[in-house]
Write a structure and sequence with these properties.
The complex is a heterotetramer of chains A (217), B (280), C (217) and D (94).
Chain B lengths: L9 E5 L8 E5 L2 E9 L2 E6 L4 E2 L1 E4 L2 E4 L20 E4 L3 E3 L3 H8 L5 H4 L16 E5 L4 E11 L10 E11 L2 E7 L7 E12 L2 E10 L6 H19 L7 E2 L12 H13 L5 E2 L4
Parallel strand pairs in B: 16-17
Antiparallel strand pairs in B: 1-7, 2-3, 3-4, 4-5, 6-7, 8-15, 9-15, 10-11, 11-12, 12-13, 13-14, 14-15
Chain C lengths: L9 E5 L7 E7 L2 E7 L5 E5 L13 E3 L2 E3 L6 E2 L5 E3 L18 E5 L2 E5 L13 E9 L3 H8 L8 E6 L2 E11 L2 E9 L4 H27 L1
Antiparallel strand pairs in C: 1-10, 2-3, 3-4, 5-6, 6-7, 7-8, 9-10, 11-14, 12-13, 13-14
Chain D lengths: L1 H5 L1 E11 L5 H11 L3 E7 L3 E9 H13 L5 E7 L13
The chains are: A alpha+beta (217), B alpha+beta (280), C alpha+beta (217), D alpha+beta (94).
């Protein structure tokens, strides 16, 4: 599978992250999104007329929406990431995948304005971002009351991966995560998963490694 | 007393990305407009129409609100044949422009912020190195800096001890020279050009002049963007936002020698835009 | 509301939001703190600023019984004393390099912090179930108006949320910001707790729009 | 060098520069306290301060770093240490 990728794109990172968590091999094709604007080049527009990245190619198949890529990778390599198949759970996963697009538009929009100087109404993007975070926090608080840590249960699914990056990077758009205790624990649970990989802006959980022993002279 | 930083040159645009429509931006709190007026010509103007001096160097457009007493600093390596010049692009950071430079001069954070790339535990020790203020050039230099790195550059395959030299030729610019894995004996040049928007907000324009014939240009850009973006959350969460010129609330150690020299140089020149003068 | 004339302690978080091996940001009237719980379960409230170069310690990590700064890895023990400076691995740092910790204690699932020793412990809310902490962009007056109740002598606002009895521990962070720890009755069922949590969202909307209306007048 | 960080040493330190501000001595004492170092002053003049410092070398280095910058109303030209003839980052005479 070939991923048209940008190191600073949370949407591209979703795909890299799930691939890492499921042991899926990806061939990365870096796209000069910033400053080059290569995603709007004729070659990439031919692949994806929307002019967005990521783009995932697998043989004849071309996918241009990150949620679809997550579903594809999970279905191929690790179906447990699609949940148990219970109808309510499947629907909830779909709901969070849709919700993740609101995170992209709001938190991701604020991040593009604040960090990469793209045009946009920062205050409006931040306000809709806070609204989405509050919704997520409320849902995760209920999950914790039920004894679960992930969005749809005790195990992570593509829903968690779809929502994780833009939430973790909300501070890039000057939206503080301080007021959200349940979001914080959920982010940590995702970061602690076996095989987790980072992207710039998300630091290593150094606590998972023991303190290095003092070298004796 | 007016801040002598007003007479310095600052990067305000990437030349290759600047068109006739140009861009509106801020320089030390003043709105300015920068636009291309010809194939090799650029105009920079203040809001009242006053035109500002312009230089086009190192991939960027430079201007000044004051009257620069010195020409824009020289990077001789930029003209060496065989180097690949890399425009990394701009990243905005909510911090003092001086803090952005200070962080660039720091190696002790590599294992914790650039984990498994520029550093890794247990290789955290900062060995003694030399720092001086070169009087003739009026620049800060740190030399004989060594640090163990798991993946020092895009072209580095495994862990090596990397040699560094740091240079501060202007209050918001730094030039880093580091071991060049494909060409032993040569130095890769990585710069950090910082545009002070306000005292607590800056646009950072990294730029590179590398000996690397192999790597894809986009890979080189992504590598440097990755490194800088790992620093951004640090820079936005240091207290206070401005760079303290009095370390009374801090504890610099020998590993912070370049930081101390940089701050001393700022203090000596009264370069205080973005600085906090009294420790609080 | 807290702190007040008779209680200098501030309720800063719920115990459940700071599990072992984690650090979170918290607010007290005498400054921001990095609230952290060691691997063995001990809580500490360090000043949220590394004495070395000013990085917020709440961005750091907990290893064993120490809190480390994410910037340069300087680590601090439960008494605030510096334990390790990784750039100088052989140096035994002096205890005088210190994060100036506040005093912290837990009672019935609520974490309290105070900056100097008190004769009185913080109040006990035995018989209550701490549900979640929320940040309101609203004044305490707007909160009381939305809740339809004022704080009683113990500092607790008793009100009805989602048809259930709820208790609010309110902390005034600023003129227009209030931190609210929502408690339920200890015997509340899961469904009742979820109802209160969800209704907390409406309470926040009411309080925030009340403040917005006042601002418009 | 790792060894030196563990050894307690006693050094004479001379600070040279424009040191007249009354803020400096209390500043030095405060900074030394923060580093857990013992200091005793033998000379306090407008352009020269001399003191004896006792502690691990890495902390005396840290003391040197702090004092080189110092409070804003003081300018330190250089710091001489008995262990090495002159500080490695001094030498700014303008």
């Amino acid at each position: 599978m070939k991923l048209y990728d940008y190191i600073l794109s949370p949407s591209c990172y979703k795909v890299r992250l799930l691939a890492a968590l499921t042991g899926t091999q990806l061939t990365l094709r870096p796209v000069d999104f910033h400053p080059g604007g290569e995603h709007l080049s004729p070659a990439l527009l031919a692949l994806n007329p929307a002019g967005s990245i990521p783009i995932l190619e697998d043989g004849e198949l071309v996918l241009t929406e990150s949620s679809a890529m997550l579903v594809y990778i999970a279905a191929k390599a690790a179906p447990e990431w699609l949940g148990s198949g219970d109808p309510a759970e499947s629907a909830q996963i779909q709901q969070w995948l849709s919700f993740s697009h609101r995170l992209t538009a709001s938190l991701g929009g604020a991040r593009l304005v604040e960090m990469l100087l793209r045009p946009g109404d920062l205050a409006a993007l931040q306000a809709s971002g806070v609204k989405a975070l509050r919704e997520l926090e409320a849902a995760l608080a209920v999950q914790r009351m039920k004894g679960d840590i992930f969005l749809t249960g005790s195990k992570p699914t593509v829903a968690d991966i779809a929502c994780f990056p833009y939430v973790a990077l909300a501070p890039d758009g000057s939206i503080a995560l301080d007021p959200y205790p349940s979001i914080r624990l959920w982010l940590r649970a995702v970061r602690a998963l076996d095989g987790f990989i980072e992207m710039p802006g998300i630091h290593r959980l150094h606590e998972l490694k023991p303190e290095p022993a003092k070298e004796t002279a | 007393m007016s801040d002598p930083m007003i007479d310095e040159w600052y990067p305000v645009a990437l030349f290759s990305k600047l068109d006739a429509a140009g861009r509106d931006t801020l320089l030390m709190g003043h709105p300015i407009h920068v636009a291309r007026t010809g194939s090799e010509r650029v105009a920079a103007t203040e809001a009242d129409g006053r035109s500002l001096p312009v230089r086009i160097r190192y991939g960027h457009v430079w201007t000044s609100l004051g009257e620069p007493k010195k020409e824009l600093f020289d990077i001789p390596e930029a003209d060496e044949p065989g180097r690949r010049l890399v425009d990394v692009g701009v990243v905005r950071v909510r911090c003092s422009p001086l803090r952005a430079v200070e962080n660039f001069l720091d190696i002790a954070h590599f294992p914790f912020v650039h984990t498994d790339i520029l550093g890794a535990e247990p290789h955290t020790e900062v060995e003694k190195y030399d720092v001086e203020i070169r009087e003739k050039e009026d620049e800060v230099w740190a030399t004989k800096v060594k640090f163990f790195q798991p993946q020092a550059a895009k072209s580095a395959a495994g862990g090596i001890t990397t040699d560094y030299m740091y240079r501060v030729p202007a209050p918001t610019c730094s030039v880093l020279y580091k071991t060049c894995p494909p060409r032993p004996g040569e130095w890769d040049v990585i710069t950090l050009f910082v545009q002070p928007l306000t005292e607590e907000l800056c646009d950072v324009w990294p730029w590179m002049a590398l000996y690397d014939d192999e790597a894809d240009m986009t890979d080189l850009i992504h590598f440097q963007q990755m490194i800088f973006l790992q620093d951004r959350s640090i820079l936005e969460n240091q207290i206070p936002r401005r760079l303290p010129l009095d370390p009374g609330m801090e504890i610099p150690t020998r590993a912070d020698m370049t930081s101390v020299a940089y701050r001393r140089w700022l203090k000596r020149h009264n370069y205080t835009y973005g600085a906090q003068l009294v420790a609080q | 509301m807290f702190p007040n004339n008779w209680c200098k302690w501030t309720p800063v978080a719920l115990s459940a939001d700071v599990p072992a091996g984690t650090v979170i940001p918290a607010w007290t009237p005498t400054g921001d703190v990095a609230l952290w719980r060691s691997q063995s379960g001990q809580l500490s409230a360090s000043s949220d600023r590394c004495p070395h170069r000013g990085m917020r310690l709440s961005h750091g990590f907990v290893r064993g019984e120490a809190l480390a700064c994410i910037y340069h890895g300087w680590s601090y023990g439960r008494d605030g004393a510096c334990l390790r400076i990784p750039a100088h691995p052989d140096l035994q740092p002096p205890a005088s390099i210190n994060t100036r910790n506040q005093i912290t204690t837990e009672r019935e699932g609520i974490v309290w912090v105070v900056n100097e020793a008190q004769d009185e412990p913080p109040p006990s809310f035995d018989g209550y179930w701490p549900l979640r902490s929320m940040t309101f962009q609203a004044s305490i007056a707007a909160l009381e108006a939305a809740a339809g109740a004022k704080a009683d002598i113990s500092g607790l606002i008793r009100c009805t949320l989602g048809g259930e009895t709820a208790f609010l521990l309110a902390v005034t962070k600023g003129e227009a910001e209030t931190i609210v720890h929502v408690l339920a009755d200890k015997n509340a069922s899961l469904a009742q707790r979820i109802a209160i949590s969800q209704a907390g969202e409406q309470l926040r909307r009411d309080a925030e729009s009340a403040d917005a209306l006042e601002g418009a007048n | 060098m790792g060894e030196a960080d563990r050894i307690i040493s006693k050094e004479r330190i001379a600070i040279l520069g424009d040191l007249g501000a009354s803020t400096f001595i209390p500043w030095i004492e405060r900074h030394a306290r923060k580093l857990g170092l013992k200091t005793s002053f033998s000379t306090i003049e407008a352009h020269r301060i001399e003191m004896e410092i006792e502690g691990p070398e890495a902390l005396i280095d840290a003391m040197e770093m702090g004092c080189l910058l110092g409070p804003i109303d003081v300018w330190v030209d250089e710091i001489l240490r008995s262990s090495n003839a002159r500080s490695s980052i001094s030498g700014l005479h303008t």
